[in-house]
Design a protein that fits this description.
Layout (H helix, E strand, L loop, with lengths): L6 H4 L7 H6 L9 E5 L6 E7 L3 E2 L4 E2 L5 H4 L8 H6 L8 H6 L9 H4 L4 H4 L9 E2 L12 E2 L27
Parallel strand pairs: 2-5
Antiparallel strand pairs: 1-2, 2-6, 3-4
């Protein structure tokens, strides 16, 4: 490996400093969606209902440093948690690095642009609603599959060519 290899290719999650660790978050907001767990099977069901602190437009926490005080069941992700949490999305940078995978083209560390996570259809932008004012029993009315799936083209090694919308027909 050359000295120019990015840190996520040369370090384990445990070896990363705080800045490196935090930069692995792609800002998708998927982990901030409410999930339901079947107590008998352990199966996870995703909802499109976001934590009260998630800004669904920017896909960032409104109070990241104080989130645990406001939302007591907010899980502070650690390298050990990454290994054990079944609900981390398949697109999660922490999960990918823990599994020995590279970060995809849309990850801000690769693209240099925090907007590519939205362009690739990874983020919850435009697909999530806030839990504010919602009773817990209403979560079952908001079950969705997309947070646990990888959008087409999102894990391709390079950015797909943009679709022009042209059909190629002449008038």
């Amino acid at each position: 490996m050359s000295a120019t290899e990015p840190f996520w290719r040369t370090k384990t999650l445990d070896e990363m400093n705080e800045a490196e660790w935090e930069s692995l978050c792609d800002g998708c907001g998927r982990c901030c969606l409410n999930k339901l767990e079947d107590w008998d099977t352990g199966a996870i069901a995703w909802t499109n209902v976001a934590c009260t602190l998630l800004d669904t437009a920017s896909c960032r926490c409104r109070d990241y440093p104080g989130r645990s005080a406001i939302v007591p069941d907010c899980i502070r992700l650690t390298p050990q948690e990454v290994e054990t949490l079944p609900w981390l999305p398949p697109t999660c940078g922490y999960r990918l690095v823990a599994d020995g995978e590279d970060l995809p083209w849309w990850h801000p560390l690769v693209s240099g642009d925090p907007q590519t996570v939205h362009e690739a259809g990874i983020s919850v932008r435009g697909r999530a609603i806030s839990e504010d004012g919602m009773a817990p029993e209403q979560l079952e009315d908001h079950l969705v599959l997309w947070p646990g799936r990888v959008p087409r083209g999102a894990l391709s090694p390079t950015r797909p060519e943009p679709k022009t919308g042209l059909t190629g027909r002449r008038k």
